[in-house]
Amino acid sequence: MTRTMTIKQALNEALKEEFRRDETVIIMGCDVGVRGNPFGITLGLYDEFGPERVRDTPISEAAIVGACLGAAATGSRPIGEILFSDWITIGMDQLVNQIAKIRYMFGGKINVPLVIRAPVGAGGGQAAQHSQSFEAWFSHVPGLQVVMPITPYDVKGLLKTAIRSNDPVLFFEHKRGYEIRGEVPEEDYTIPFGEAVVRREGADVTIVAISIMVHKALAAAESLNQMGIKCEVIDPRTIYPFDYDTVLQSLDKTHRLIVTHESNRRSGIGAEIVSQVVERGFDLLDDHPVIVAGLDVPMPYNRQLEAMVIPSEEKIKNAVLKLMD
Amino acid sequence: MTKQADPKLLVDRYRLMWVIRLHEEALKVLFTQGKIGGTTHLYIGQEAIAAGVIAQLREDDYIVSTHRGHGHMLAKGGELRPMLAEILGKFTGYCKGKGGSMHIASLEVGNLGANGIVSGGLPISVGSGLSAKMRGTDQVTVVSFSDGATNEGNTHEAMNLAALWKLPVIFLFENNHYAVSTEVSRSMAGGMKNRAAAYHIPIQQVDGNDFEAVHFAAEEAIDYVRSGSGPYLLECETYRIEGHYYGDPMVYRSKEEVDAWRKKGPICRLEQALVERGILREAECREIEAEVRKEVEDAVAYAENSPEPPIESIFEDVFTEEGA
Prior knowledge:
heterodimer; A: Rossmann fold; about 40% helix; B: alpha/beta; about 45% helix
């Protein structure tokens, strides 16, 4: 049996089911308890599981992230929540110098099964410090897994995998994606990391789209279809590990690659994806790969300027047309 | 008469302090011989703190250590052989040669890790304190830090949360007077007493070179924390006899200053008390020293003869499942 629900509801359901399944799972963060998170992601958890396991914290990112680490190393399965992913910077030492490296530095002696959840993304007029997506930063750090799903089915299955994983996971939720609806089965399921999904099949151009860009790429593909151009849209779902096989298989058919992400272009994840594809499958390409990404400026507040910085359906479409020209 | 510790305990800890001291002395030789890579931070002069606080923890208690952490590990039950093997980067070391001097850890002895970031351990101690509390155990966590860490945000966030949640954490402030080259009076506003008061954390300040003073203060701190009353701050005033790292030219302080502290060193002070009280004769002290020296030499030989890590291990241990 499947039901239709929003990403927000799917996340909430995944949390509740994992809390019921494993009593070592705890969550901490600013607003996760009584308020149930500003987006409603943790609604009902506090009432069902109590203040010990659902812990409201001060605004204290280093302490939240570090406390997750210490608890994970000593038998808990913590989920830390950062209200906006931009503020992970305040807990950066704990994440990058501690969590990511501890298992390796200590010769595999200490495991850190933890998840840090944080909303990413722009488009709400929230300006430069509430709109960023740091997937490229964190996938650069060995020792972290980076997950960025954008359908209700995927967020639920991948959040469960993240909670059950014995290694640290950064779980990025797009703020503009919380109301996206989709089908979710009633029974328990998980989705393995490192498995991309082909969202739409096509033989002309491969579009690898990250997070919210999946939906923009699908819209662009639909409109291009009416012009006779067939786009294949791939949603990698996890940034690290990354499923290059699915991308290369697609290129074997299309021979043209576009990568699109919302975060700004310079040193973004698109650069890494393109470079990997070029090294692994140069001969598959008939043309140079193209990256459609955010502009290299801090996010402006003004709506009109913001809309220019964020890559649009239109920009993807134009990139495809140029490539097919 | 001031309170005196049990003679047997004193001899045991006196010996432990020699283990720490001679371990560090051996590192100086190995470093000079070019056998230790990178850098190494010596615990010389601070032995009474590890021996006074950490050595009286239970096996299932936790410590979160620092870059100057060899003494902590040895006091928590760490063994000389895998310690020295790790510092020489060998596969038989505590971390298979991947951590080195600054990153020694072992869950078996309850060491959640030394740390190359001076305040990096404090938030971690909040987590181990939280998990102990949630599991309903009475385990305590001792997190060590020095004056260099007191002015980083990690420290304040951790103290606030530990106090707010009444966690079983002892903040062990080993004030050794120097953050790299900067003397504490030039780095720290307010002092730890005021900071502890701000977070409503009880504090005791003791002479960190006086073993018995540290021991009894730690006993109180451990009892307080174990009973579930919340965190405790123990400030031990001591002195970093060596440079920040071994080989530091130390242009920032005078020889006279260092010599004055050397005379107040924790080992000679405890030795004096042991002899005065008739617990050990001077010759017995030298015997203990010689015995420990042998143990350290044995461990150095073990470490030197240990294998290098296999090349294949380079990709191991990043994740629990490779390719995850």
